[in-house]
Amino acid sequence: MSARTALIQPQTAHRWLPAACPRKVPHHWRPWLQDEGSLTQRLTRAAQGEFAVRVLSQHWACPSADEARALGMPPRQIALIREVELLGRNGVPWVYARSVLPASTLTGRERRLRLIGSRSLGSLMFRDPSLSRSPLVSAPMRDENGQGYWARRSVFRLHNKPLLVCEVFLPAMEHVQYPL
């Protein structure tokens, strides 16, 4: 998946900027990058209910240095890495999402996050009253073939335990109207 390689290329340092500063962001992408609510809910509305999650992988590994820094994790600490596609109408992939859940986060009530299968992480997190979120940041990125993408990410906290969610908007999203 080229959105995945664009996101996790170790030689590429993405320049994450506050999503609230829309300079150089094409008009179509601004509401998607700046919406602080549940992306799952927004995509479900845009897809008129035809929303699904396809799990690409879920495994224990060390996050990238950039991801570990964002989470305040020490180097070489493992985390649960979950990679999914969020599918819109007719099963078309709209978003590639990568979540990094440190082992220290997956304790107590948050242990349930290890076993969510094809449910969206957002559908669980946004129901939790302990949820807090860092300001969204966004970045343009390119894959090895020069395909451009827009991505956003933020650190969520459940019971003050961090997890990082990054969402890369795929080319099919260029034709999806932001639902009000």
UniProtKB/TrEMBL annotation:
<dbReference type="InterPro" id="IPR028978">
    <property type="entry name" value="Chorismate_lyase_/UTRA_dom_sf"/>
</dbReference>
<keyword id="KW-0456">Lyase</keyword>
<dbReference type="InterPro" id="IPR007440">
    <property type="entry name" value="Chorismate--pyruvate_lyase"/>
</dbReference>
<keyword id="KW-0963">Cytoplasm</keyword>
<comment type="function">
    <text>Removes the pyruvyl group from chorismate, with concomitant aromatization of the ring, to provide 4-hydroxybenzoate (4HB) for the ubiquinone pathway.</text>
</comment>
<keyword id="KW-0831">Ubiquinone biosynthesis</keyword>
<dbReference type="GO" id="GO:0005829">
    <property type="term" value="C:cytosol"/>
</dbReference>
<feature type="binding site">
    <location>
        <position position="121"/>
    </location>
    <ligand>
        <name>substrate</name>
    </ligand>
</feature>
<dbReference type="GO" id="GO:0008813">
    <property type="term" value="F:chorismate lyase activity"/>
</dbReference>
<feature type="binding site">
    <location>
        <position position="82"/>
    </location>
    <ligand>
        <name>substrate</name>
    </ligand>
</feature>
<dbReference type="GO" id="GO:0006744">
    <property type="term" value="P:ubiquinone biosynthetic process"/>
</dbReference>
<dbReference type="Pfam" id="PF04345">
    <property type="entry name" value="Chor_lyase"/>
</dbReference>
<feature type="binding site">
    <location>
        <position position="167"/>
    </location>
    <ligand>
        <name>substrate</name>
    </ligand>
</feature>
<comment type="similarity">
    <text>Belongs to the UbiC family.</text>
</comment>
<protein>
    <recommendedName>
        <fullName>Probable chorismate pyruvate-lyase</fullName>
        <ecNumber>4.1.3.40</ecNumber>
    </recommendedName>
</protein>
<keyword id="KW-0670">Pyruvate</keyword>
<comment type="pathway">
    <text>Cofactor biosynthesis; ubiquinone biosynthesis.</text>
</comment>
<dbReference type="GO" id="GO:0042866">
    <property type="term" value="P:pyruvate biosynthetic process"/>
</dbReference>
